[in-house]
Structure of Proline--tRNA ligase:
Amino acid sequence: MRWKENAIKTLRQAPKDEESVNSKFLTQAGFINKLGAGIYTFLPLGLSVLKKIENIVCEEMNRAGGVELLMPGLHPSENWQKTGRWDSFDALMKTKSAFGGEYALGPTHEEIIYPLMGHFISSYKDLPVALYQIQTKFRDEKRAKSGLMRCREFRMKDLYSFHTTTEDRDRYYESIRKAYLKIFKRLGLKVIETKASGGTFSELSQEFQVITGAGEDTIYYCKKCGNGINKEVYSGKEKCLICGGVLEEGQAVEVGNIFPLKKKFAEDFNLKFKDKDGESKLVEAGCYGLGTSRVMGTIVEVFNDERGIIWPESVAPFQVHLVELGKKKGEVAYKKMFAVGVEGLYDDRDASAGEKFADADLIGIPYRAVVSEKTGSKIELKERSSKTGKLMKIEEVIRKVNGNSR
Ligand code: ATP
Ligand code: MG
């Protein structure tokens, strides 16, 4: 893609009204644009990253037996009245139709998926089943000031699984826990599996936390076994409850949260199945959330330097940033790369070397390829994370870049 085709507009300086590293860099580099507190447009570069993150999440959810659907974001108030959460869910955004009826803007989807499953589940033969979506969620967050980390409108993957027994639910829970570990590994994030507030070590229910100063949670985590516990629930012991190791305290952000759902929603919506003996029983369920847009912010918080973002290859908007200095020297290299499917951003602007290099560092594509009078028929390839580049032939560049991105 050529620079102009991508509608990229980088800013000379970070916006003054943004406080967090992720919102500063993402805005300055042209990935997102702020509309209001906690409300952002994903510009073409940003959407490309978000889609890569969401594709990885989808792949692993499908592998774990999840089936994708898409539920509405507009929820009739009756559904929320039924669970009592119309009044008790603090961050619920409410709106009225001019033609009658009140609605919630969906912050989570138990109120929708339970009655929906009533149409599909009647017998034990219909179970287990697991459905997920990736969708825009709404929450009336009090403090929406950390860029993509805490938004009023954000993206979430939510999976719901339904089972005949708690044993089957726990078996599935374990497979999703493993799928989450795979997802975060592919995203380049080191996660600490943390017991959530209210949870104990014996109970299933956990958060996936990433250590970063930008996180709002304080956790204790064990350097030995890697497990953690949210400070909110931990009463003073200094040792890890799993291995006895020494606990460290750190700031972290919750990127995912998985837990079994109590019988409450099944009761509220009378979601039952007939077992083998014809007895009617309440359906067991689990719920598994992962904030895909928060993940994008978290990646930027973790992978950056003073010059800009350093994207992991798996989610970078492009693999190579082709920088042309001087006359149209990049055209041949660009066409060759494009022909073999390398994802390249071609900076063919009429701008100075300094400006182009600064933008390449700011945007953070894993490889920078420079073509100039000085490089002759070769290309100077440099990793974003390293200081020096190397001269090589275009074929070598393609091999290196393709090899690493697979
Ligand atoms: P937090 O404690 O950070 O407010 P939560 O426990 O309310 O999060 P869940 O209801 O578990 O969040 O939602 C699932 C996932 O959605 C979270 O793990 C997080 O990654 C993401 N998420 C939740 N709230 C927001 C938000 N306001 N902005 C961006 N992502 C969010
Ligand atoms: Mg949570």
Notes: The radius of gyration is 24 Å. Residues 108 and 323 are 43 Å apart (CA to CA). The chain has two domains: 3-305, 318-404.
